Amino acid sequence: MEQPSLEKKDPLLLFPCPGCNAQLHFDPGGQQLECEHCGTRVAIERGTDQIRENNLHRQMVENTDPATTIEQQVYKCNRCSAETIFTSETPTFICAFCNFEVVNPVAYKTRIIQPSGIIPFVVDKQQSVSIFKTWLGKGFWAPNDLAQFARQDALHGMYLPFWTYDAQTNSHWTGYGGRYYWETEYFNDAQGKRQSRQVRRTEWIYRSGTYDRFFDDVLIGGTNELTQQECYSIFPYDLKALINFDARYLSGWQADVYDVAVGEGYTQAEAIMRDAIHDACAEQCRIDTYRDLNVNTQYSAQTYKHVLLPIWLCSYFYKNKKYHFLVNGQTGRIHGKKPVSAGKVVLAVLLALIVVAGIIYAGNQ
Ligand SMILES: [Zn+2]
Ligand SMILES: [Zn+2]
Prior knowledge:
Layout: E1 25-27, E2 32-34, E3 41-43, E4 54-55, H1 56-61, E5 69-76, E6 83-86, E7 92-94, E8 101-103, E9 106-113, E10 117-118, H2 125-138, E11 156-188, E12 194-221, H3 228-233, E13 243-244, E14 254-256, H4 262-285, E15 289-318, E16 321-328, E17 334-336, H5 342-364
Parallel strand pairs: 10-15, 11-14
Antiparallel strand pairs: 1-2, 2-3, 4-15, 5-6, 5-9, 6-14, 7-8, 10-13, 11-12, 11-15, 15-16, 16-17
This protein binds zinc ion (ZN) (2 copies).
């Protein structure tokens, strides 16, 4: 039977070594390309241009604005359906999201919105492995066999897709500000004696105002492989370090393809802006308290950027449950939930009971 042949990869993503023609890798330590075979190093010159903001309406109306999209070869994991871009010639890769070795992945070309910015990896593999090992060793509750996951190959360096949105907002609000005042109230107590007490009342005053704010770079995760909560857990990224996208930074690394469409991401971003605007207007309306706040907002001049941010990811199954361990590839900040060992919990409960029994025994002496 004939093997399905893989299409040749996007030549954009292939950077052969000038010395030996092997594939060059981006090295976070030196922030340059490096050949693992002959040691040749190639500098990446950084442009000084500002990162381009794209017009959101044009993208949404024209669906795929040809000026901002590229045709890209993507590979789909046959176990978890994650879509990945990577730069290796072998028709095999380890899926970072389910740790499954994908042989002959489904590969196809698709038009995707081109990243306009990237934060290159700063934390290298060695550093991420030692962060992971320290984290594993810390918890008393983690099962002993978890340690086996600290193998080098369990951690994958991956660029995750994000959207950032800018918008000018102009809001008009109306509502009632409440001022507290105290009144003396008289009553008869149980003995029929006349007593007084202070009662808080609220005077409601109609108020209205305007609030204008420009939102810069509201960040939304573009992947469904991780929850927004997991993404937020390794925030912040220092977006000042964003540089213009250059495919050479992907050389030797994987990049996840976004699942969240640009318009869908904007809906999430607008909800974040709406909450922030509501809070700010509430502060304007409030005297001691407020009620019936009504905010009317015009959003305009919306722009977006598609950016790739670095992450070290370990996905593992423990007793049929999926766990993720994440390291922010720029700052080293970690997130992980450790499975709790049932045996260790039982042991701890027994120990606690023995201690309690001992205290009771000592108390009765
Ligand atoms: Zn070489
Ligand atoms: Zn997978």
